[in-house]
Write a structure and sequence with these properties.
about 60% helix, mainly alpha
């Protein structure tokens, strides 16, 4: 991942989180979908979410809670239907569960 591209995405995500309001969940979802569409992999999205302003006092508890929910969908510790999907990953139920919950994506 290009460090400048990553830093720009982190700044953009933190801006969304700092200005949290009604509808911000959808804004985060669209933002992340755009990243996935531009070939961001599960590990990069996970790192971005973990690096987002968790300790920033300007970010509301509601925003942090939503990011925690998104992290859960990235790591796969949720229902099968809630697992965030990425291109070039398994699509069959058993395969995606094994891939995501088994942390195989962390080595790519």
């Amino acid at each position: 991942m290009d460090p400048n591209r990553y830093q720009s995405a982190l700044i953009a995500l933190n801006d969304i989180l700092k200005n949290w309001s009604t509808g911000s969940q959808e804004v985060v979802d669209l933002f992340l979908m755009k990243l996935v569409e531009t070939q961001w992999r599960r590990g990069c999205v996970y790192k971005l979410l973990m690096d987002s302003g968790k300790n920033d006092k300007q970010i509301s508890e509601e925003a942090n809670n939503y990011i925690d929910d998104v992290v859960t969908s990235v790591t796969g510790f949720c229902s099968l239907d809630s697992i965030m999907r990425f291109p070039d990953e398994p699509t069959e139920s058993d395969s995606i569960l094994k891939y995501v919950r088994g942390n195989s994506w962390r080595t790519k």
